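anyone seen this seq b4? input:
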Amino acid sequence: MSAADKHHQTGAFLFLPFAVDVFSRRDLRIKRANMMPVGKAEYVTSEVLEALGEVVKRGSLGFLCREGGWRALEWARPGEEEPIKNVRLIDSRVWSDLQLEFGDPSVETLMIAYNAVCNAGGMSVPGKSGKSTQSMYPRSKRISFKRNGDVLAHHVTFLKVRAAAFEVDNNYWGFLTRNPLTEVARLDARRKPEEAMARIAKPDLDALIPWLGGHLSRCWNRELETRWDSLERFHRLNEGMETYFTALVKRAREEERRDLLIPLMLFFMEHFRREDAEEMALGEFNRVARDLRFVDRDTYMRTWGRAMHVGWELFEEYQEARAVHPVDREAPDRVFMSAYESWDFNPTADRARSLSNQLNAVIS
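predicted toks r here
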């Protein structure tokens, strides 16, 4: 059997089922199987590529539906004066404005993720080591995120590998986290947060934000569960919150799209869900920062405080929208105000402001 035939078999009987698992509810399992050459079309049959295209398209739509697309929301459709009520993501009025497009980056993402899982199972790159071999079986690679579907497929793959009961090599992990949507979801502002937000803000993706608001909120709060692992982790997440939350508020103001602030409301409501959330957080901070100098402690607290102050800015945005006569309010403002009032966000905004003032040593 030739090398190409072996790869064809691997692609059909191992790689394709792996791709199905990525987009399903099944957990990933370690594979002790041969790796797949990346970027070599001749090693994958046209039948596998066609099936893979269907898997990625349907799997990405399934992800969107599970993460909030099934919810009937009030939606501010661009160009419409009135919000549309009780509309789901798969409604023709939404889906006609949103075309998910996929390309080679989605296939390469799944191939590298497959190789990562094989590597975690003890498999190594076949053949002699060298640049030519490593280029066929890369542990990391730069891919394009020009298509919105490729952004989603890469993000879903990251989520699946992260949820696995095993860890992958750091180089593979680095590849899986280099995605604008993933960086925002992880509050990772170490690379180029401006570029990440700019990509998310493009029309082909920001149309998803109303239905991905719950997903982003859950991701943000999940990341914060690890903030007490170290002071470095704590500070990095606070910087991420400040960077991305502030950027989202700024864009909502500039584009007159206050409906984009709904994910932030969801985040802060969950963040302050417990009545003793502030007390617990301050206690944990005092524990991890007990050996800090006063000036360093103050720096950490102020960054944290600026991130929390965004919760109060949501109240200010509501007040500004409320000051406009109902007849003159734009659809995005109406959607934002409706969510704010139905969730009774005022108490949450007050708690965010109180904590921010305490962290910044402001007398209120």
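The first helix runs from residue 3 to 22. The chain has a mean pLDDT of 90. kinda curious what u guys think
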